[in-house]
Protein 1
Amino acid sequence: MKKALICFLLLFITLSQAPESYATKTTSNEQTYQKRMELYTHMESITHIPWYYFAGIDQYERSVRRARRDIPKELGVLGIYIEPQRWIGSLNKDTSDTNPLTIELLGGIGRDGNGDGKALLTDDEDVIYTVAEYLQTYGVTKEHIEIGLWNYYQRSKAVDVVVENARMYQHFGRLDLEGSSFPVPLRSNYSYRSTWGDARGWGGRRIHEGTDIFADYGVPVRSTCYGVLEIMGWNKYGGWRIGIRDINNTYHYLAHLSGFAKGLKVGQIVEPGMLIGGVGSSGYGPPGTAGKFPPHLHYGMYKDNGLNEWSFDPYPRLRSWERQDRVKRQTKK
Ligand SMILES: [Zn+2]
């Protein structure tokens, strides 16, 4: 009896709190997107660099920052991080320098973006203005912006991800690209369990870098996220496979497909639920090899922290996408 009462109380507390906290979170997310958009469009109006490049840079840096422990957490709404010494100048010995004149004189990139007389590394307006001014010196066409980005990051992958992000923001015309979808329809007959890190049954000594979703041959495979299709074609192990990089700079690898959706091509922008192929059993041999194992979708996820990329267990994400699809299905009824 006592136990039941506690359960009831817990349920009551959960129910009475959940809607409010959800609402608060949604509003604060909307406000954050709005503040970011204001900063990007303001920079576009002064530099003529399209807003979606600032959004692309900011989002790439946010993803890097969140994957690293050696970079402080962001204080404002922007994710852009500039190393202090780069900000104040390599010759500058005053590590707390905020004077725009001495910073510029000593080769620092830090600028005063809001006219308060200080170039502050922790001020969103100063940070975005600094990046904008840096890029503007290279020019404002697509090619020039890419050259500027290359000089800024000195890492081709960083440039690629920023440009992909920018294309996505331009395409959708908004900042909120956080939706999801489970890779196979819930009504299909499928099963999966957590197998990340297991020894691989086929093909080599590496651990199993993914979750296998077993389903019938030809069951539709959909994109789970907003992203750009980076890779599509045959791989000796993965068979017909697809690689998608999402807006959070996470790489999704889908393998052993029966084939690809009609018209799908590398560089294409995808969104949650979009058909990309079918469950198959391709792989482990030259192009066309199939049937060496039962049909399943191999789902792998990789994180990039600006320096290197590593595999992580997709199982918890798959569970959460599955749950969210179930909720969507119920609310539709
Ligand atoms: Zn697998």
Note: Residues 208, 210, 212, 298 surround zinc ion (CB under 6 Å).
Protein 2
Amino acid sequence: MNNPEISPKFGGEAHYTVDGYSGIAFYLIGRAQEYIPETVINECGNVGTYCACDPEENPECWLYSEPEYVDSDTQVIAVMVGDDQRHAVDIDDLTEIPETGYCRECGQTGCTAVVYE
Ligand SMILES: [Zn+2]
Ligand SMILES: [Zn+2]
């Protein structure tokens, strides 16, 4: 079930099933990270002159941005209940399930061994 309006809850506050991993409950530990590569932008620092914007002679004409990681808008890190492997999953693939909808021991949604609010 796809729901683009979902706003993910982190830290085990809510549990989800994930498309492609049916029958298993997940909790979310945070947003996935997206890598933004470094950029260099030409912005002439000598406007009005016949500046050649030569990277060697006119370093003031170049704006450098460090590469960075930013929070993804579309993916989160999900962990299976009873496991510690991390999966990057699309928020669209999450379906929130009730806190009584899965087993806290093994993480399976069909198991009723350890179920409580
Ligand atoms: Zn320049
Ligand atoms: Zn179980």
Note: The mean pLDDT is 93.
